[in-house]
Amino acid sequence: MARDEHKGRFSVIVLIVALLLSLSALTRIILLLGTHASGVSVTQFTGALFIGILYDLSVASFVIIPFVLHLWLQNDFIYRKGVMPFVCLFFAGVLALLLFTDLIPKDFNTDLHNVLVYYVAARFVIYIFLFFMPYSFRVRWRTGILYASTALVVFLLLFNAVSEWFFWQEFSTRYNFIAVDYLVYTTEVLGNITESYPLVPILSVVGILAIVIVFLLRKQIRASVTTPFPFLKRSAVAISLLLIPLLAYYAVQEKWRHFSRNEYASSLAGNGLYEFAVAFTQNELDYYKFYQTIPDATAFRLLRKQLETPNSHFVSTDLYNIERDITYTEPERKLNVVLISVESLSASFMHAFGGNENITPYLDSLAHHSLLFTSLYSSGTRTVRGLEALSLSIPPTPGQSIVKRPDNGHLFSLGSVLRSHGYTTQYIYGGYSYFDNMKEFFGHNGYSVIDRSAIPANQVHYQNIWGVADEDLFDLSLRVLDRDFKSGKPFFAHIMTVSNHRPFTYPDGRIDIPAARQVREGAVKYTDYAINKFIQDARSKPWFDSTIFVIVADHCAGSAGSVELPVTGYHIPMLIYAPKIVEPREVNTLTAQIDVAPTILGLMHLHYRSKFFGQDVLHMPADRQRAFISTYQGLGYLRNGKLLVQSPVKSIHEYVPDFKSGNETAVQVDSGLAKEAIAYYQSISWLLRHRRQME
Prior knowledge:
By secondary structure, this protein is an alpha/beta fold. The chain contains 24 helices and 19 strands. Helix 3 crosses helix 12, helix 7 (about 135-170) crosses helix 10 and helix 8 packs across helix 9 (about 185-195).
């Protein structure tokens, strides 16, 4: 009898756990079958399923907490006449504490404080209402609340499964920092989702499924309310269930899913909600805690050796000071600079890199009249990581980009260097610059920020949730640059495009791919069209002949692969165009995205004091070629045809990458190469931690 009571009273919890486990397993199967994750073997997928169950159970233990509390604390004792005054006094006391004291500080989060007040007040009102109702009504009320709560949780679990599918389709991984951004920037992201996917039909189908599931399980759900179960026994079960999340929090570890070198298999082993929670709590990974290190003095000696070039001279004997005076034999040239960072422009889109879709006709033609960098690799897979590399010229650090971190102002940047040389410096963006913390970052690191709000409504040809169409962004840029020129000062403008981004919408009538198709190929071709229009319009300007135009991607359109860091997912193009200044040619030097800023300054022969980790590629000694690629956790170092990858749990692997397919062959780790890679990543972590990378 006791066993039946136990089963009946908590049957809804068993159902939710079973549903979560079933959905998670089904999600893994669908993600495997419905994508290009063909490199996952049967053994790897079996391992992913078994390891995944541990994460699923961990998540389930947290999901059921509200139900455990709901079923545990249900009782009719509080509705006795003699008890009512004490219950009312309790509610009144809690409300008084919330409203008239600072025991729970209002300033910490005003909205959260208000929600708590409304919740307690609502529960008080409901209690008074139920007190005057008969027992049979209270049972129906509780049953209805449990139906609604179960339906809501089932809906959210189903919707999460659908969301994981779309996220996997876009990023080929489980939830990560990007998903956290999606939660933070709800306006842009929900707008993007609405414009990209049939959201209303999806929500409708998911809602109907949730209702059907609850209807089919209505007897078991009702039993959780109607089955008698003594309070003491109920308490023992409830407390036991509530201890499981605590155990899971400390016992289950994120590293378990990294059971395979196949990144797809490792991702499938995870649980989306679990990975989301991990990403939410880890804005930054402590390099010294999670990665292999060497003595700091050794790291800086190796770094200083790598940064030594014929035209740079260290200004201090302090081992931990990397400041150098950069000089050139040629006189300085006060040239204007327009740096266009193009959203998601993979090298493979262009003919010069094997593309055959003719979606970058202008850039392909411009390549013959420019410095074309053929071996350039982006620092990461997101815009903020590209912006970090282009502006700060530092290797990527584990965790979130510096752009998104708190207290990231007054860093040594390209903007601060040029501003100190009398330049007008600005960051121009087609969306609202609060997104991705761009306004805060650039505004406190040597740039004036100009964004969507500077464009009058009557000058907007087209816009989507991310911002105005690229042609409107470039029209704004032309007006800004004309104003800069009239001021009599040289100018530097970093322009960030937005059109090559899902939902891939743009104005009609510009290119031969209809906007209604909403495909990336169309967005790429439209951006190419907008850049062409911008350059042609600039030709008529008095400042054109004295301006260097730099066109570079922020990152590739995709970086998915069966390996953690597929080099093909980081290969990006860069063109430097200045017909009266630069002789066209191909630059085949292995180039990191952090080398862009010093290379631009080198073309100007600028004499400056540098804290950059990047180097002027056009004056770089042949034996110093290297590049940095990364995910949020994997730190890659490309050199001499080898790729060394540092990962959390102090793991290091070395590979020979195939630069055409992105596949890798594991080789024995070269200790010298490993120390070199560690020196770069450890040194930048040390400098940022000790605030030694300030301007």
